[in-house]
Design brief:
alpha/beta; seven-stranded mixed sheet; five-stranded mixed sheet
Length: 393
């Protein structure tokens, strides 16, 4: 690929142009969707030396190069691998840098499937797993052991949105020789660039905001220079490749991610601030709000906020949570987020061992979509009333 350098341009200009050069494909604006397994060589000598750009479908195509190049431009990374899901984007780097006898520190507010993989497969492979408080900061050094090889972060945390001091954690962990990984799906590289803050491996569920339409699964993993080769070799060894049509859809979604994120952020802030004053809401868990304990870190390190946060209902339990969800008409009840539509889910914190929190009532995670904020607020108002009716409020 011969994509031009747009690093000095604004974010929307970069999103519109990074990743491929139309002149490479006869002037067509978008790159071709290359469906490939076998790649032919012109002669035996070239085949023996593998002396050509593409050698087999698992090792890259013009389609995968276009998206990986675009992600590298956003992340400032030495290389990016593309995998079939956000969870695969978590598991591949963990397998790349952990072995039997190693110790891994994972934030306790982590995405639940990450915990399931760690407690299941990694533990079975002989890796010692320990969870830490998301507020530990530089104190992570006190938890590290001689065999600590990975510190896995996620900021803000899944479902309850605790902020981590990523630069402090990265400095402490790397001083002891550990690889620092971060699930940065919430912010995307538009609002936070992990590698600029000392992180080695940046992980994204491109299923979310890059794709943006709730119709494709994809993950990206980007590495700095020191970790890229080991990550790439593990990716090839695992054979965990993303499908070309999915890659193409995410590249297409990436072009509009900036304007979509701005609307998600605007809507979410308006709704979150409104919810802070609503009866039946005990707390709004959004790091961009001044009331959030993590607001100072968010303001220091992040360039914006996405469209997902949680609220804590004022008392009650499962009955109130279900009444809230069942009263929603505009919000869909479904997992994932980052698409154009609003979604809601009742959060379970049963898996946590450290960051359990002291919440007054059910925690409800809200993905604020691209709808008109007045309509979103009306839907939530009816849901809050339904929850209050159950509890007699």
């Amino acid at each position: 690929m011969t994509s031009r350098d747009y690093s000095d341009k604004g974010v929307h200009t970069r999103l519109a142009h990074i990743g491929n050069n139309p002149r490479d494909f006869f002037g067509f604006v978008n790159p071709p969707v290359v469906h490939a397994s076998t790649v032919l060589f012109p002669d035996a000598a070239t085949m023996a030396a593998r002396n050509q750009k593409y050698t087999y479908g698992t090792r890259g195509t013009p389609t995968t190069d276009a998206l990986a190049g675009a992600i590298d431009a956003l992340e400032g990374s030495a290389g990016t691998i593309l995998v079939p899901s956000g969870l695969a984007a978590v598991t591949i780097p963990l397998l790349a840098f952990l072995a039997a006898g190693d110790h891994a520190l994972i934030v306790d507010s982590v995405y639940n499937p990450t915990r399931r993989f760690a407690d299941g497969m990694l533990a079975r492979l002989g890796v010692e797993i320990e969870y830490y408080d998301p507020h530990v900061g530089a104190g992570i050094s006190e938890l590290m052991k001689p065999n600590t090889k990975v510190v896995f972060t996620e900021s803000p945390g899944s479902n309850t949105f605790e902020m981590q001091d990523i630069p402090a954690i990265a400095r402490a962990a790397k001083a002891r020789g550990a690889v620092v990984m971060m699930d940065n799906t919430w912010a995307t590289p538009l609002y936070f660039r992990p590698l600029d803050h000392g992180v080695d491996i940046s992980i994204h569920a491109a299923t979310k905001y890059p794709a943006g339409h709730s119709d494709v699964l994809l993950g990206t993993v980007s590495a700095n220079e020191s970790c890229w080769e080991q990550l790439f070799e593990t990716h090839l060894t695992m054979g965990c490749c993303a499908a070309p049509d999915d890659v193409y859809q995410v590249l297409r979604g990436l072009r509009t991610m900036g304007v979509r994120l701005e609307r998600h952020e605007q809507n979410a802030f308006e709704v979150a601030r409104w919810l802070e004053g609503q009866p039946g809401v005990a707390q709004v868990l959004h790091p961009g709000l001044e009331s959030s304990p993590g607001h100072t870190l968010w303001k220091r390190d992040f360039g914006g906020a996405s469209g997902i946060f949680s609220i804590v209902l004022k008392g009650g339990g499962q009955s109130e949570a279900h009444a809230f969800l069942d009263a929603l008409k505009l919000f869909g009840l479904g997992y994932s987020w980052g698409g154009y539509e609003s979604l809601a889910v009742h959060v379970s914190l049963a898996d946590r061992t450290v960051a359990k929190g002291d919440y007054e009532g059910p925690v409800m995670r809200l993905q604020i979509g691209l709808e008109n904020p007045e309509d979103i607020k009306a839907d939530l108002s009816a849901a809050l009333a339904a929850a209050a009716a159950v509890s007699g409020g």
